[in-house]
């Protein structure tokens, strides 16, 4: 379980998050929607320890607030940033090896936790688009393939929590649907997923709960059905 209590964070003197409280449970996708600049990526960076932050962030009962990014990454938390985390000059396979190494560096895995770490064979089975490209430099892949590689790399370590920042931005509808299915399968295996998104349709179809962020606070939290019915919230905080 990921728990955020009154989390505040920002850049230098300017505060962006003004007290965010939320939870993500195992086997649940929580989507965070919001307009450009609402603070969603800042929330992801605050959880991952990349920014000074106040308030409380807990993962499986342990406080993350005073840990450094490399320590947080070893606790079974996978992060796919909005920049798509692939190393262009390295091949697809080398990128996946790096993800596997991150998994081996992992420290505190509770003995009861399912071991979801992937072998290369399993990765290419699950991400069949990547198999024929295994020896190609990541930079030569299409945008959609790079996003799949970035996701797959994060999954190599078998995270129990995955934070994914706008995985579908700029991608064709077919790839968007594919990413939705991958996240849904992952959730079904018990992973907790924090999905930062722009696309209301994807959030409605794969999340169990939706949070809407506006100017650094949550202005809505509830089930997809509740947001589908809350047209005033959608007009004020989501639609352009
Ligand atoms: N590195 C940074 N330094 C200073 N300010 C930043 C930095 N990154 C983001 N900001 C500011 O923080 C605010 C929130 O940005 P954030 O990236 O969290 O938004 P977002 O919700 O992810 O939106 P989007 O991804 O659509 O741009 C914005 O006002 C942005 O200008
Ligand atoms: Mg962002």
UniProtKB/TrEMBL annotation:
InterPro entries, per database record: AAA+_ATPase (IPR003593), ABC_transporter-like_ATP-bd (IPR003439), ABC_transporter-like_CS (IPR017871), BCAA_Transport_ATP-bd_LivF (IPR052156), P-loop_NTPase (IPR027417)
Keyword Nucleotide-binding: yes
One annotated GO molecular function: ATP hydrolysis activity
GO BP terms, alphabetized: L-amino acid transport
Protein biosynthesis as UniProt keyword: no
Pfam families per UniProt: ABC_tran (PF00005)
Highest taxon of source: Bacteria
Ranges of residues in domain ABC transporter: 2-240
UniProt keyword terms in alphabetical order: Amino-acid transport, ATP-binding, Cell inner membrane, Cell membrane, Membrane, Nucleotide-binding, Transport
Family: Belongs to the ABC transporter superfamily.
Name of the molecule in the record: High-affinity branched-chain amino acid transport ATP-binding protein LivF
Organism, as annotated: Pandoraea eparura
